[in-house]
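Quick start: read one record
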Amino acid sequence: MKKLLALIVSTCALVAAPAAEAIELTPLGRTTALGEAQAEIAAYHPKRERVFATNAVENRLDIYDFSNPAAPGGPIESVDLSPYGAGPNSVDVTDKGLVAVAVESDPKTDPGKVVFFDVEGNFRAALPAGALPDMLTFADKDRYVLVANEGEADDTGTPDPEGSVTVIELDSKRLLRSSVRTARLGGVPRFGEFRIACPGVPFAQDAEPEYIAEGRHGTAVVTLQETNAVGLLDFERARFLYVRGLGYKDHGLARNALDPSDRDGAIAIEPWTRVAGMYQPDAISAYSHRGLTWYVTANEGDAREREDCDEETDVSDLTLDPTVFPDAEELQENENLGRLNVTENLGDSDADGDYDRLFAFGARSMSILSPLGGLVFDTGSELERIAAAEEPARFNFSNEEPGVFDDRSDAKGPEPEGVDVGEVRGKTYAFLASERQGGLYAYELSGPSATFRDYLSTRPADLGPEGVLFVPKHDSPTRRAMLLVTNEISGTVAAIDVAP
């Protein structure tokens, strides 16, 4: 309770935002293209100028030499992870050179592992994690490792492990003596508008932790993507303080317009009444502004798809309430709302068998959350509008090549996936990657708001950006701030120069 009170008190001192400054993103180079799922998440060690990238296809950790980001080439070393599990999902590294890798089991419903190596790839230790460890991060000056265990069910829905966070308090001298605890979601207070993705499933099983960002006072915010919520975690005590629903985005407002059709042959970003977006954030990153911690989220969206719970459908396949939607026949045409992917598990507010509101996956945006996890800012329709202006011929492309114009408008649009924050010349920026179209957005962060500054696409060399990592200039081999963008489809790690 003391930590929660400290966070509440700290939110009461909002201050004026600093003046804006332009920024420019410029491609430097990339690793050799390995192919789909062979470079998904990366970590960087500044002293050795090495990048560690997960390779799920080969079940290994690839190590790259990034002393020259213009020409990093292929892996200089690869670590076989098959002795520890079925494949890596995440990696992080400390300044002292301790590498941690989250490795899932086969089947994925079994407990996974966190495997530790040194920067040369030598094995140090393996510690237990929960089912399907999806993301991990070092916290509190590298004293802790926090692991988001997605706990995803198998295709039949049974077994369905609980989602959780593994909290490892490291023993720096003997890793095997480290304390391993589990923060669970059962019985945790919940408030705000969240959802149960699979009706009838207990929240602790339905919630699937996706990403973690460290805050203040020994806390972190954890995204619970499918349930459209975040959890506030006290990692020193290995317990969740509460879960907070993020509510729903009103796409009927002009500032929240979207293009819902892949069959109209045009860029048509318009407001649609009684269409809501579920924010469903994937990646989350924290930043500090005058003593306060804020969080930026990439609102990708995700549907539950398995034999016992397959919620995704098109608007054209639903029965719409004739009073709420008097023009239902026209709305359900393919060039209007008919092709939009929505959930069939929300929207029948009066339980009469027809739909009174439509809920689409994701919010096609970046949001800012308060220190307590409340949504305070959203980019609205900007991501689609910027992409339309910058790359009209590639608007809402898929993440494969050759792409198809307007192909993803019915399904989460640009699909923001990865985000990281960093400081350049005293100003804080968020760098957001759209998984499908492939664009990289730079936003200046000023307290609880964000202003667009630059856009870059490196297609077709890089396809399917999954992870974004900011490298400050004092750690960068170029002595200028740099981004490392891990691209899932092309299997490349791209270096991007960041400068005013």
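Helices lie at 2-10, 203-206, 328-331, 334-338, 382-390.
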